[in-house]
Amino acid sequence: MTSMNKRVEALGSSCHSAGRCGRPHESTLLAVIIAVVVVIAVAAVAASMFTRRRKLRERFGPEYERTMGDAGSRTAGERELRAREKRHDALDIKPLDSSVRDRYTRDWAGAQEEFVDRPEDAVHDADRLVTSLMHERGYPTQDFDQQLKDLSVEHGRTLEHYRAAHDVEALSTRHEATTEQLRGAMVHYRALFDELLSDGGGPRHARA
Q1: How far apart are CA 74 and CA 124, in angstroms?
Q2: How far apart are CA 104 and CA 110, in angstroms?
Q3: Is 110 helix (H, G, I), strand (E, B) or coil?
């Protein structure tokens, strides 16, 4: 055996006894696999968050950004919206019988006619009608702020109308609202009223 062969044999024997032959390649491969798994996991989490955020935006409409601003952070805001969804799911929201819808339609028409001679009274009646209709559908009506939260889940795109109408109604109790503001309040109340009057299909519009 030549001296070269002896050195090669000694090196192989040393690698085998120490268990180090091939390890650098195995470690590199393992590091690559771990990195790929981490990237996939991060991408999956990001995709899940994006999907949840998109669904919240679609469901709550303008109320999404309003809630983000009120909460101070997107994480807190989205947590609040998910809590609203959970509470809403526990409510017994039900459609209206056709006879009940017809009665509310007639009552709204009466409030509209009342506006000609007694606009402040008409706005108060419109507020009571909307509140009564909410209760009829299964929404709690004891607290205005909670009403807004509960309504935001299914009526986020008309909720700003309800806020505006409520503000004018508060002014009218102090006789501080103008006729134009009162007229606008009726329009705002009507937007939510029509949605609440719906039984799950298209809105059944009250007669103007």
Answers
A1: 37
A2: 10
A3: helix
* Token reading at 4: 């070269």
Contacts of 151 (CB under 8 A, 6+ apart): 134, 139, 159, 162, 192
Residue 10 amino acid letter: A
User: What is the C-alpha radius of gyration for the chain, rounded to an integer number of angstroms?
Assistant: 32
DSSP one-letter code for 206? P
pLDDT band at 11 (very low <50, low <70, confident <90, very high): very low
**What gap in Å lies between CA 171 and CA 173, rounded to an integer?**
5
> What are 78's two structure tokens?
């989205």
Collapse the DSSP code of 56 into the 3-class scheme (helix H, G, I; strand E, B; otherwise coil) and give the result. helix
Angular region, 175: left φ>0, alpha ψ -120 to 50, beta rest: left
Amino acid letter at 192? L
Q: Please give the model's pTM, rounded to 2 decimal places.
A: 0.71
Rounded distance, CA 45 to CA 66, Å?
25
Tens-place pLDDT, residues 99-142 = 999 999 999 999 999 999 999 999 999 999 999 999 999 999 99
H or E segment and range at residue 90:
helix 74-90
Please report where in the chains the tokens 């409030």 appear, as a residue.
111
